[in-house]
Amino acid sequence: MSLSTLDKLQSRFAPQSAQGMDDVFQFHFSDAGSHYLVIKDGTLDVQEGEHDDPSVSLSMSTDTLKGIMNGEVNGMTAFMTGQLKATGNVMLATKLTSLFPSG
């Protein structure tokens, strides 16, 4: 994943939406390796690699993530059409757009 996409997530992070959370979002990118986001009580930590015990694991391309984050791709549609695969607490994935609002 390009650093700029991770930087965008950092700058778009909405700490007020993450109050009381203690979750790990694991991303497996078909075109950019693995990264994970640790969200804990309004803080965000982005790491490269695999987490031992993620709350939810999401597999997709970086283009799919960009599309979901900028509103061009519906996350549920991506899931239903196989562009996005999720395991673990799948409902947690629906919080991504509120944690990283687009504007």
From TrEMBL:
Pfam families: SCP2. InterPro entries: SCP2_sterol-bd_dom, SCP2_sterol-bd_dom_sf. Residues 14-100 form the SCP2 domain. PANTHER family: SCP2 STEROL-BINDING DOMAIN-CONTAINING PROTEIN 1, STEROL CARRIER PROTEIN 2 SCP-2 FAMILY PROTEIN. This is SCP2 sterol-binding domain-containing protein.
